[in-house]
Give the backbone structure.
Amino acid sequence: MPTALRLFHRLLSVLNMLGAVWVVALMLLIVADVVGRAFGKPLFGVPEIVKISVVGLVWCMMPHTLKIGAHLRSTILMDRMPPGGRRAVEVLSCLLGIAMFALIVYSGWDKMIEAWQIGEFEGEEPMRVPTAPIRTMVFVGAALTSLQFAVLLLEHLRGRPFAADARGT
């Protein structure tokens, strides 16, 4: 495996781990808020933080999930296709994935830059959560997902099975 691809996959793994740690942190924050509410002292801004965070952690984990073939998929039709048909569908899926996530990158660039420039936030006082970091994560996550679709496309065109195919699913 080329060094660049190894580094790319390492980056995806690190972002996935960051997303997993983020999930645990959110869980602890929610528990603290619930306990605080029981004693009449809720934490301010937890709903806003959770709402924004869910978007960010999904985009942290999306490219790695694609890399390992862990997205939900139905194989009812694929299982009945000849190998050439399956390959054609997989190639088409990769091409559509590249295009779709590249369009998210393209359409999100201006909004991300604007969010940084104007200091966009979610929520009201006493807790205002900045949205620029999350918009950046959407941008980066979509870009990395598009690149991962390109990696999968090249692997598939070379005759290597996807991770999901290798597992027999």
About this structure: Residues 36 and 86 are 53 Å apart (CA to CA). Strands lie at 121-122, 129-130. Confidence is low (pLDDT under 50) at residues 163-169. Residues 3-167 form one domain.
